[in-house]
Every structure is written in structure tokens, then in C-alpha cells.
Amino acid sequence: MGVEEAHMLGLQEFSNIWDQKQQDFDARANQLQKVLATRHKQEHQAHLEKLRREVEPRTPRWSRDLLNLRKIQETLAKMRKYAEAEKTKVQADKLEAREHNQWKEKREARIAVMEEQFLHKQQLEMGGLLKRLKASREELRRSRKAEMERLLQRYQNLKMQMENQQRIIQQRVERYPITAPMINNSSRPPSGHSSFHSRGMCFSVRDASGGGAGAGQRGAFLFRVVQDMEDYREAQRAKWLRQAAKPAEDSAVGAEGSQTSGAEARPEAAEAAAAAAAKNETGSAGSSLKPNARRVHILPVFPSSCDQSQRLEILSPLLRSMRNSQTPVKTGLFLRPAGYEFVVVKCEPDDAILAMNTDYFIEGSPLKRFEKVQFICLWDFERTRTDQDATALFQEYINPYFKRLNSNEVTSIVSVNEQLQINGMEFQVMAAEPVPPEIGIVDLSTVVFVDWDNTPEFSKIHFVPFQDTLPAAYEYDIFNDYLKPYLTRNKQQSFAMNDQFTFQGVQFKVVCCEPRGERGRIGKNTTIYCEGVLHPSLRNLLPPEMPLPLTVFMPCTFQSSLGP
């Protein structure tokens, strides 16, 4: 199977796996939304019934006028003044109906307010779930994109490696062509032998049975290589050198006018041709070792008076010349065409040669030379903070690093929040002036500040995975298979209470840490716990900033604040 077919099959399998993951996630998300909506509906109905039973006043509170009219009605009825009693009753009924409607409207309004507050709480709960699902869906999308980029990068690396190998072999074949020797049709191999030719080499096959003796018995065959491949290549190389030296020999013979002088010049011409061939071979092999640049980002150095639309026109002659001469290009290389000054901001891969299929990017603001840059030296559980002061960090790491990178032809380019690996230590760019932009040039005139990272170290931290994200088809070790690889890849990451992260499909949450109330980092003395699981309840699934605001909407708070 070829590389292209294997790559296409890998892409198909990759798409099938991630499509299934997306379908499972969507099904799980729909199920969570349906379960939450059903529970909200039931809780809303139960809460509404509870409000109608318990909201005060449960019965109307009649006014003094209505009570007096009822007493007058009873008194007139006892005195057998039925006409006057009837008039009083009609007047009292009207007043009672009016007061009953007022009581009902006020009670319904209070119930509506409390119901609206309850529904708002449910909306916040549903919104938190949707936000959590959106974040998980985005995390799944980023994971798929990252896996796809890694898969494509592996394919590109393999393809580039094969192209480089084929290019080297092709160059060798072009320089030292291998031709099959002429075969005399009249010649026949001796009895008991047969011969065949492949790739310019002659192979002889001799019957192991020894000719006629032992006829009828099928013996083994002994393959004997008449001429080794390397020897044959050397012979072809010597032949090519003789052909290259022949014009020099003829010229020498014509100048001297004698056969002797021509014979003396032959070794010198052969040596000169051999030296030239060796030089050409070395140069070609050296340039072929460098990969082709896929993408190159070039920006002018501030101050620049050229318009963005003119940049490529200004750079084209120089880039064409560099491509023809196979001049290596790397990040930080100065380009100075026609009185302008440009710099290579990024070259992918770094230290490569320009090719016909190289993509050039020239968009962006001119690059400024930073006046001040601040670095911090990071530490983690593999490298703890030493007793070195900031002056030692500058003299032993920062200063030699940038002095080595800066010259008249090459400079160093850094961006804010970028991490640099310098002699086994991790440094991060915290701030720079002037900004914007966030990327610029650090040269020998830049004022550099450096200090240690002051992020505290946790003494204890507890990570707990979500139960529904754990694999069910195979056995696993939650620490060695998931937590330890994630922490090893993210050594400088800081954590805080309720932080969440996902690694290889398993979601973790920080449920406890010491000291509390501040962000910290895992160091050599940190004790890590990972016992237990978290069930996907709404409170656990909500983002870290949501549980605290929801506590003010608890039912007991409503009853105490909205009571009679």
C-alpha cells in the first residue's frame, strides 16, 4: 500500500472515530437537556402548587365596613324588617365582591413574582448547562483539530522525508548513471548454469544438484552475485570521471603537440575533474539536506516607509535570488532589498531553503525594536527554584543567549507570553515596551529585566475525574494514564479551586488544594490526590463562576424575603 492510500485510509478512520465521538456527545448533550427540562417542568408544577397553598393571606381579610353591614343585615332580619335587610345585603355583597377581587389580584401578583423568580433560577441553571456543553463542544472541536493537524504533520514529514531520499537517489543516478552491460546473444552459460540481469547487475544461478548427477532431484539454488552494487557504482563513477577528463586531455594534447605531454596531462585533468565532481556532489548533498520552506512571514522593520501593497514587489528580486542560490532562511534573518530593511518573523520549518511552492506572508504592522523586556524564570516539579539571584539569571542565561542570536545579519524575535528554552531553563516574556504590537526585536540595545516566578507551590491538591468521561471498555490507571501525562506536558500551568481541564477525553476538576484561595503550581513537594469520581450533576458541571451567584436564588431565601 502506498503512502497516499495509507494516509487516505487513516483520514477516513480518523473521520469515522471523531464523527462517532461527536454523535455520542450530541446525544449525551440532548439527553442532559431533556432530563433537565423534564425536571424543571416537574419542579415548576410542584412549586406553583406549593405557592397556591402557602402564600399569605390564604383567605380574604374583610374590611370593617363589610363586617358592620353584615351585622346590620342580621339585626334587621331578627327585627323582621326584611326589605331593609335585603337592601343591606345587596350593598354588603357588592362590597364583598369588590374586596374579594382585590385580595385575589394581590395574591396572584405575589405568586406571579415568586414564580418568575423561580423560573429565572431555572433559566440560569439551564444557561449554565448550555454554557458547559458549549465549552465541552468547543474543547472537542479543538481536540479534533489538533489531532487532524498532528496527523497531517506526520504525513507531511513522511512525504518530505521520502521526497528528500528520492531526490538524493535521483541526483546520484543522474551523476553516476547505471547502465546494463551488453549481452552477447551468441554466448551461452555453461552446463548447469543460468544467468539473468537486473538493475545493471549480472546474477549467476548454478544448479546445486551438480548438472546431470542427481537428475530428478530438486535441490537448492545458490545465487552468486557476480558484481556487488557498490563496486559497480564505483566503476560507473570512474567511467564518468574519465569522460569528464577527456576534454581536458584533448586540450592538453593540442597545446603540447606531442603524445607524451598529453599522457602527462591526463592524470592532472582526471584529478581536477574528480575534485570538481566531488565539490559539486558535496554542495548538492548539503543543500538537499535542508528542507523546503512551506511558509515564510516577512515584515518590515520600523520605521518603514513602504506601503503594504508594495512589500512583495520590493522583496521579489531578493527572494528569487535567494531561491536560485538556495540560501538558507530562518527566523530572525534580516533582508535588505533596495535600501529597505525587512526581517523574517517566522519560517516553517526553521532554517530551510526557498522553493517554488513556498507561501509568503507580508501582512502586519512594521516590527519594532523593543526598548524594555521583562522575563521571569519558570519552575515546575522537575526544576525547583534555586538560590540564584536575578543577576545570575541574566549573566548566565539571558545575556549569552541573546548575544549569540544577534549579529548584523540575524536578530532575535520574541512576543509577549512566549516561553523560551535557554540552557535547560524555561523563561517567559511577561511584558515589553513599546506595545502594541506584542511582538518585536530584542537586540543588544534592549534593556532586559529578569526575575524568578513568584507563583506559590501547592502542598496538596486533589484532582477528581467526572464519572461519565471515564473509559468503560478497558482497564486504566487514572494517575499514570491520564493525570501524570497531562501534568508532564503542562509543567508550568497554575491551578485554583474548581478549575476544570480535559485530557484524552477524560475531564478533571480541582476539588481541593492547599493553600486555599489562591492560584498555585505543582512542585516537587506537592502531594497529588486523585481518588474518587464526580457524577455529572448540574452543580459539578457548571463553570467555576456560576455556583456562587446561584446560591442567592435558593428557595429559602425567597420565602424569608417575600413573606407577609
TrEMBL record:
SUPFAM superfamilies: Cdc48 domain 2-like. One of its GO terms (molecular function) is ATP binding. The keyword Coiled coil applies. It comes from Symbiodinium necroappetens. Keywords: ATP-binding, Coiled coil, Nucleotide-binding. Residues 130-172 form a coiled coil. This is Uncharacterized protein. Residues 243-289 are annotated as: Disordered. The keyword Nucleotide-binding applies. InterPro entries: CDC48_domain_2-like_sf.
